Amino acid sequence: MNAKKVTVIGLVAIVALFFYLGMNAYKSRVQSAQDVQVKAEQTRLVRMHSPVFGPQSAPVTIVEFFDPACETCRAFYPIVKSLMAQYPNDVRLVIRYAPFHQGSDQVVKLLESAKNQGKYQPVLEAVLAAQPSWAAHGQPNIEIAFQVAEQAGLDLTKARQDIEKPGMQALLQQDIEDLTALQVTKTPTFFVNGRSLPSFGPDQLAALVNEEVVKARK
């Protein structure tokens, strides 16, 4: 290898290193700004209308900002369930809606109607299982989600009536205002007892939950 090639490779490596360091610094600044905002707006993390899984009095609360059309949210659903099974008395999950994808607002209302009928979890799981068939980005087919919900036991006639009620839109609007105030820009976004993940991933979520459980048990 001649000196010119060595020089070029060295320059590319230096540029890549500065890019990597710059991106990390940028992510750190963004996360720090969000942490400050979340601390100042703690009351926006959980609302009375928010769906909750697990014991209401659990000392550790996972808040998940969730879009039913989000593939990563679908992938994380069994991961979060596994964490809750690991700590059945210590952890609860609070769902907040972040309908970023086209048509997701209608599916959120469908889920809320399912909650009113006591069918939230079976309908949620059915809608997530069928997500690839209804949630094509740019051209979703929401009617499929409705059909799947009916097959999961939802009274679809009543659900369609519920969806048209003003209170349903007000509930969704509250979640949108909260995610905007908390600077949530992607799904899923997790907060564990108000703390954001140091970086995104299932291991990071598990570690933060474990840390909060250990702290709560002391």
Automatic annotation (TrEMBL):
Pfam families xref list: Thioredoxin_4 (PF13462)
Record keywords: Membrane, Transmembrane, Transmembrane helix
UniProt-listed SUPFAM superfamilies: Thioredoxin-like
Database matches in Gene3D superfamilies: Glutaredoxin (3.40.30.10)
Residue stretches making up the Thioredoxin domain: 27-214
Transmembrane residue ranges: 6-23
Highest taxon, organism lineage: Bacteria
Family: Belongs to the thioredoxin family. DsbA subfamily.
Protein name: Disulfide bond formation protein DsbA
Organism of this sequence: Hydrogenophaga crassostreae
